[in-house]
Structures are given as C-alpha cells and as structure tokens.
Amino acid sequence: MRFTTFACAAAMAAMMMAHTGTAQAANAKAPVAKSKAVAPRDVSGVWELYPDPFAGDENTFRELPVPGDGPTLREPYAAEWKALRDKRDAALKAGTPLVDPSTQCMPEGMPMIMGAIFPIEILQTPGRVTVLAEFLTQTRRIYLNRAQPKLDDITPSFYGMTTGRWEGNTLVLTTRGVKEDVRFFEIPHSADMTITERIRRTGPELMEDQITIEDPKMLLKPYRFTYGYKRNPQYEIMEYFCEREDPLLKVKADGTVEMKTSDEIK
Question: 208-245, pLDDT tens digit by residue?
C-alpha cells in the first residue's frame, strides 16, 4: 500500500502495514472465490491500478508520471504549468515534497479518483454506477440513461455531474461541472471542461478507462490517456479518513511534506 497526492506518492509505512496485515488475515479466513466467466457489462468489484506503478517502491516518496503525453495547454497556461511542475519535481528530488490538496485531506475529484492509487470499488445498481474510493472514503455517482443537464444547471463539485450509457460492451460517460480549483496533476481547466470516459472489460479480471479531457479555453487539443485496472476479489475496502491532519504525513512550516516516524503514527 502507499499514499498519494495529485502528483507524488509515499508508502503507507507502519499504519498501512497493519492495515494490510489485518485485511490479509481477514481474507485468509474467507473462502477463495472461483473464477467466473467474463460478463462484458459487469464492471463491479474492487479494482487496483494495473500495472502497479509502485511495484518495488514501498516506503518512499515517488513522483507519479503525468498520464499519457501530458496536456497541450494554451499560453500562458503552458508556461505556468511547466513552472509548477518544475518546482514540484525539484522539491521532490531534494527530499522535500510540496504540500498539495490530497496531503491536506481534500478529495481528489475528477478524473484523479479514477487513478485508483488506493483500490476503488464499483457498484452497479439499476440506473446507477457508484465508484467508492478507499482513499478518503470518496464517493462518485454515475447516472445511466439520463440526459446531461445544461452546464448552468450543474452545481460545481469535486466530481461534477456524470451521465452515461452502454454502447455495446463499453460504458460511455460524460462529466461536466468539475470545480475549477480541482486540479488533475495541477493542470488548470475552465468551467467548460468536459471529461469523456470509455470503460470496458479487457480480460477475465482486467478493465480499462479511456479518458478524454476537452477544454478549448485551456487546451489546444483534447488530452487523452488510459488507466488500466486489475480486479482483486480478495481485497476488502477499508475506511480511510484523515481528520484535521493526515495520519501518515505531516506538513512543515515551510509548506513541504515529510512522512511521520513510526513513533509519530497513532
């Protein structure tokens, strides 16, 4: 297990080792689920990012790469974003990663919630798909076979308003109304941003989410990338809240972040 922000990740250290040990102990007592035939329209279950970007890098801060080829921003946004990324990269290299919304216990929002640094659980019910993220116990609601409201009728929020439909075996989603201060890898966006997702099963326990971000006010061309997932039927999502301060990280007076020692983790 590990901790992530919008741009950097750290291992879960002692507390998450205990978390994992507890989950594994519970799972060891549970009967092993038998493999089932693939149901193309079944995206339910607990999913982990795959391939695992943290494999072999436990108990360290690590910079997550910006997905795909990165955004093609208009100026002056391109230069401003590059300066932000350079500052963050330099701080991480120096061993003093910078604070950001996630390390301050803020929800990830869209589309970062789909990055699934911690596992996500997807529930399918009539007319609804619900995404439950372990990190900060976030909830994203997706409404099926419903018209997307006019933008003026959507109250801006962390996850926006998502509507969708099945096209064959692909779940096609449209999200609008993400708050402008919700940033994905610190990429700026306008109130007009539209996120389109194409979610489909790619194997017995595999799934992908092809994401396209369109925002003509900020982007010279749509920003496209894909997240892959592997289903883990043995994993049980656990509650993860951070109250007032993160249980694993501490923010220093200069605005940088460091991991707590084992003695500091309660």
Answer: 999 999 999 999 999 999 999 999 999 999 998 876 66
**pLDDT band at residue 190 using 50, 70 and 90 as cut-offs:** very high
- Are 222 and 212 a contacting pair, CB within 8 Å? yes
Q: Which residues pair with 132 in a beta bridge?
A: 121, 139
CA torsion through residues 211, 225, 63, 186, sign: negative
pLDDT band at 137 (very low <50, low <70, confident <90, very high): very high
Alpha carbon distances (Å) from 12 to 139, 259, 262? 22, 9, 11
Give burial (CB, 10 Å; 0-12/13-18/19+) of 40.
Answer: exposed
Beta-bridged to residue 166, according to DSSP, are 171
Predicted TM-score (pTM) of this structure: 0.79
User: Rounded to an integer, what distance in angstroms lies between the CA atom of residue 132 and that of residue 44?
Assistant: 11
Percent of the chain topping pLDDT 70: 80
User: Do the Cβ atoms of 89 and 97 come closer than 8 Å?
Assistant: no
Calpha distance 13→123 (Å, rounded)? 29
- Environment class of 75 (CB within 10 Å of its CB; exposed 0-12, middle 13-18, buried 19+): exposed
- pLDDT confidence of residue 21: 43
Cis peptide before 222 (omega within 30 of 0): no
Cα dihedral sign for 159, 163, 168, 169? positive
Among 53, 3, 23, smallest CA distance to 248 is for 3
